Amino acid sequence: MHSFIHFFIRSFIHSFIRSLIQDTAVTNDHIWISTNASGDTCYLADIECSVCLCLCKSGFRKKCASCKIVVHVGCIPKLDQMIFKCKPTFCEGSHRNYRENPTTMRHHWVHRRRQDGKCSKCGKSFPQRFSFQNKEIVAIGCSWCKMAYHNKITCFTMSCLEECCSLGEHSRIIIPPFWIIKLPKKRSTHLRVSSSSSSLLSPLLTSSSSSSLSASPSYKSFIVKPLPSPHNLPLLVFINPKSGGNQGCKLVNKFFWYLNPRQVFDLTKTKPQTALELYQKVPNLRILTCGGDGTVGWVLSAIDHLQLQPHPPVAILPLGTGNDMARTLNWGGGYTDEPVSKILSSVEEAVSVLVDRCNIGGGGSSGGCGNSGSSGGGSVTKLPLNVMNNYFSIGADANVTLEFHESREAKPEKFNSRFKNKMFYAGVGGIDILKRSWKDLTEYICLECDGQNMDSIVKHSKFHCLLFLNIPKYAAGTNPWGNSSSSNFRQQKPDDGYLEVVGFTAASLASLQMGAHSGVRVTQCQKACVKTFKSMPVQVDGEPCRLSPSTITIERRNQACMLQKLKNRGSTSSVQSG
Q1: Per-residue pLDDT tens digits for 3-14
Q2: Which residues form the DAGKc domain (predicted)?
Q3: In terms of CB atoms within 10 Å, which of 23, 265, 364, 556 comes out highest?
Q4: Domains of the chain by residue range
């Protein structure tokens, strides 16, 4: 039995991938995922479910992430024979008649043996029974707008079958299927695009199929023809499943339920640039990035590369360890199983703000002032990133981040939760404070800000760490620059074109994690240049490396349009420090 099921699953996946390569995607295909819902009755239980009859309700089950029906693996072929399809995700069309596609859509009604909430007709609650004890259909619900009725002729009438679906609570951000047109192959062989674009609309595209597709160019399989409206805020969702200890994987399936699956992208299978190329002409487009600071930077770089105008504003669902950009924009320090519907509502209500982005480059050997030092083993000659969104640091804190990175690369299974990651940081950071590993940092660096030499301040203070801030938050929510302003410094803002330079000793770094603003304000500048004379740890937005002697330059690149979550409904305040 087990071998049969494994064979069936492999055959199903291979046929799905093959259909993508041959551009035979079907609009009503179910999105089957594994489920542990062993108590849920098979959707075919009332019409001769073969597994239920033969195996006494045992057997492996699959759940459709898009319409939430549950069936036994062995019953999927019978479901196909019944022609019970999932909610449509695109329309079939051609180059000449794409505007002839419908501009409204019907409900996608599904029988439910368990339903929360109240009937949309009579307003009474649905009876709550355990599914495995009950085969009775208690409700009929729409997979799009989430309306549900009692399974009674007084509640669900024939007129419901003819009604147009409103797409429900999140209609403003859902991309309707009739916006996405699949073109017939014979009419589009003259349109050549990258092969990844031809199949990007599949939410289940695997890395193996992606690599096979990239071997040769393909015609443009899909186009997007939106119907502009000032009320619509169509949303693209980018999710990094590797972030947040498997939280990302679960979120993919949740977003499939609330949105059109073809507006949700798994970044391990589809690059953000590929999706943005298709949707770049959609007006009022918004983006939700689910991941850490690195994922946010990846999406912003893709927008830069395509030179999208206007710049689509980007919201953040924090799944990383630090999540400093998310904290700055009020999205919080981490995802805590907040209802997805509430998150989508926050994205709809969020206001656009600007955040500076900086070019950062470093390489080559430094010469001139300072002591000479050996380059050391394991050094690199280039920084891990060439664009900085959050901060750049050099010295003690970067050394802790580098140790964390190397340990995670060696044993990734030990770093599968945000809590474990923070505990590691605390442990390594405490050891580094006791060892005072970088007490001589200032002997091997020179700092110049806006053409002014700052070596006297740096060497006098004997910093163990030098930090360049673009946003107020740093190291999982601390506020190194502080909130108070003085006559010597302007108020810190992430959109003013200035960097804040702060220095720390080992002790002040420890105090910072306890909530104190114990760093030394060095200066604010528009351009900074750091020369190093030995190999030393550095980090850009949490991406560390051991950099050989180099000259590192930081200066403003452009501004990104971001979405700031409203703390209070009706508030439209701009991003401030702290």
Answers
A1: 444 444 444 444
A2: 230-364
A3: 265
A4: 25-87, 106-166, 177-349, 358-563
Share of the chain above pLDDT 90, in %: 47
Q: In the beta sheet, which residues pair with residue 469? A: 391, 500
Alpha helices in 307-353 (DSSP H): 324-328, 340-349
* Residues linked to residue 239 through DSSP beta bridges, in sequence order: 266, 290
Measuring CA to CA, how many Å separate 191 from each of 18, 188, 219, 430?
Answer: 22, 6, 5, 59
Confidence of residue 133 (pLDDT cuts 50, 70, 90): low
CATH 2.30.30 fits 106-166, yes or no: no
Dump the DSSP string for 557-577: EEEEEEEEPPSSTT--PPP--
Most trustworthy range by pLDDT among 178-187, 343-352, 371-380, 396-405: 343-352
Q: Within 13 Å of residue 330, how many CA atoms lie on the same side as its CB?
A: 21
424-474 per-position pLDDT tens digit: 656 665 566 656 668 889 899 999 999 999 999 898 888 999 999 999 999
Main-chain dihedrals φ then ψ at residue 563, nearest 5 degrees? -105, 125
3-state SS of 113-147 is CCCCCECCCCCCECCCCCHHHCCCCCEEEECCCCC
Residue 217 has pLDDT above 70, yes or no: no
CB of 312 within 8 A of CB of 263? no
Question: Does the pLDDT of residue 167 top 60, yes or no?
Answer: yes
Check whether 37 has a pLDDT greater than 80.
no
Rounded to two decimals, the pTM is: 0.85
Q: What does the alpha-carbon distance between residue 71 and residue 42 come to, in Å, rounded to a whole number?
A: 4
Q: DSSP 3-state assignment of 323?
A: coil
Q: CB–CB of 184/223 below 8 Å?
A: no
Contacts of 435 (CB under 8 A, 6+ apart): none
* Domain 358-563, CATH number (from 2.60.200.40, 1.10.357.10, 3.10.180.10, 3.30.70.20): 2.60.200.40
- φ, ψ (nearest 5 deg) of residue 553: -120, 135
Cα-trace Rg, the chain: 27
- At residue 432, what is the residue type? D
The answer to whether 144 touches 87, Cβ cutoff 8 Å, is yes
Instruction: Look at the alpha carbons of 514, 518, 524, 525 in this order and tell me if their dihedral is positive or negative.
Output: negative
List the structure tokens of 191: 């349109």
Tokens of 519: 């760093």
Query: What are 306-342's pLDDT values in tens digits?
Result: 999 999 999 999 998 889 999 999 999 889 889 999 9
Please check whether residue 458 is in contact with residue 466, taking contact to mean a CB–CB distance below 8 angstroms.
yes
523: which residues sit within 8 A by CB, 6+ positions away? 449, 452, 454, 457, 501
CA distance 525 to 534: 25
- Specify the fold of 177-349: Rossmann fold (3.40.50)
Query: CA of 295: how far to CAs of 309, 388, 482, in Å?
Result: 21, 13, 27
